[in-house]
Amino acid sequence: MTNNTLSLVRGERISQDAQWGVLDHPDGTGPAFAAMLKDWREYVDMAATYGMLTWRDILVEELFEVLCEQDPERLGTELVQLAGVAVAWREHLHRRGAAPVVAAA
Questions:
Q1: Measured between alpha carbons, how far is 85 from 36 in angstroms, rounded to an integer?
Q2: Quick one: which of 81, 105, 79, 101 has its CA closest to 2?
Q3: Which CA distances in Å does 13 have to 23, 30, 38, 80?
Q4: Tens of pLDDT along 41-79?
Q5: Which residues touch 45 (CB under 8 Å, ≥6 apart)?
Q6: Which of 53, 76, 86, 94 has the fewest other C-beta atoms within 10 Å?
Q7: Does the pTM of the predicted model rise above 0.85?
Q8: Contact by Cβ (8 Å): 82, 62
Q9: How far is CA 73 from CA 29, 31, 82, 99, in A?
Q10: What are the boundaries of each domain within the chain?
Q11: CA–CA separation, 58 vs 38, rounded Å?
Q12: Coil, strand, or helix at residue 51?
């Protein structure tokens, strides 16, 4: 299943490059997001305690970790973790029958 999902991601990236070309934006990350990450982690801990943790909760926590990171190497690692959660969520949709397997391009 992971290969199918990654194939879809690769196709999306090809489409993005075709539409907008190679983009060169600043990262826009840093400590301004630290309070949001702290608050979100508290929320996630509470949701987990009560058995109400969702994919959204996990993905948003990963996003806040990305937004807080300034070091380029660690930022790259955080982005891969964020993408990994997105892939896992998409695979879960498939297991539930909500996201069909698409033929690899």
A1: 19
A2: 101
A3: 12, 25, 31, 15
A4: 999 999 999 999 999 999 999 999 999 999 999 999 999
A5: none
A6: 76
A7: yes
A8: yes
A9: 13, 16, 14, 33
A10: 2-95
A11: 14
A12: coil
Cα–Cα distance for residue pair 1/91, rounded to 1 Å: 7
CA dihedral (97, 98, 103, 105) positive or negative: negative
Q: Give me the helix-helix angle, 72-95 and 55-68, nearest 10°.
A: 170
> What tokens were used for 99?
């996201």
Joined together, the tokens standing for residue 29 give 């990350």
Q: Name the token pair of 97.
A: 């029958």
Query: Six-digit token pair at 92?
Result: 């879960």
Burial class of residue 78, CB neighbours in 10 A (0-12, 13-18, 19+):
buried
d(CA 4, CA 102): 7
Of 60, 69, 25, residue with least CA distance to 42: 60
Residue 32 has pLDDT above 90, yes or no: yes
